[in-house]
Amino acid sequence: MKRLVVLISGRGRNLQALIEATRSGALPAEIALVVSNRADAQGLGLAEAAGIATHVLPHTAYPNREAFDAELLRIVVAAKPDLVALAGFMRILTPVFISAFEGRLLNIHPSLLPRHRGLNTHARALAAGDTEHGATVHFVTQQLDEGPPILQGRIPIHPDDTAETLAERVLEEVELKIYPQAIAGLLQ
Ligand code: GRF
After folding, report:
1. CA gap 90, 104 in Å, rounded
2. How many structural domains compose the chain?
3. Which residues lie below 8 Å from residue 25, measured CB to CB, with a gap of 6+?
4. Which candidate, 43, 74, 95, 123, has a CA 20 to 30 Å from the CA of 162?
5. Is the dihedral of CA 160, 163, 166, 168 positive or negative?
6. What is the DSSP code string of 62-125?
7. Rounded-to-integer distance, Cα 55 and Cα 33, Å
8. For residue 78, what is the domain's CATH number?
9. Measured from the CB, is residue 153 less than 6 Å from ligand 1?
């Protein structure tokens, strides 16, 4: 059985979609470990409810990014993953971690990359007058949000959309669908 490690920092809506896809068989893999850099991440409760091992690695406990990444690497390597998926993981990873997993390290970014790299993508899409928006599953490389795209999903922007309504629709109608699909495709 292929093994996934999922890194989170928050709600875990993408993690939950991956959990459900492994249960339904849509994603023929097991989530071997969920790691969060925040002890208060709601996604930890979702993992525990699903019987998945969790590990909290508080970034505040480390003097710098490289020291955090070295410990994160040790923990993730020990779980023997075939793929590592960032799912709402809000830390910028350094080459210490990326170089060990490049080609097996994925992220989901809530925009149609290369448009709107970085944060606040929904508000920026509205401000730019974009008529459509979406999300991108991509390989993680050392350039933030620049890795080769794997799968994209797009939706129209409605005239009455706010950043909040757009974010929710991108999550529900795009992210939660394309992440399990992208990972299943890669593992085949
Ligand atoms: C999502 O919008 C995702 O695109 C971004 O982080 C947000 C929260 O994701 N990476 P989740 O609810 O923690 O999965």
Report:
1. 18
2. 1
3. none
4. 43
5. negative
6. SSSHHHHHHHHHHHHHHT--SEEEESS--SPPPHHHHHHHTTSEEEEESS-TTTT-SS-HHHHH
7. 7
8. 3.40.50.170
9. no
Residue 109 alpha carbon to ligand 1 centre in Å: 8
Side chain identity, residue 85: A
Cβ of 91 closer than 6 Å to ligand 1, yes or no, is no
Question: Which atom of ligand 1 is nearest to 42's Cα?
Answer: 13
- Residue 160: predicted pLDDT: 97
Residues shown for the chain: 188
pTM, two decimal places: 0.96
- What is the extent of the structural domain holding 181? 2-187
Q: What CA–CA distance (Å, rounded) separates 8 from 42?
A: 9
**16 CA: nearest ligand 1 atom:** 14
- Mean pLDDT per block of 10 residues along the chain (188 residues) reads 97 98 98 98 98 97 96 98 97 95 96 97 98 98 93 98 98 98 96
Confirm whether 138 is a catalytic residue: no
Query: Ligand 1 center to residue 10 CA distance, Å?
Result: 8
Q: What angle do CA 55, 8, 28 make, to 5 degrees?
A: 90
- Single-letter amino acid code for the residue at 53: A
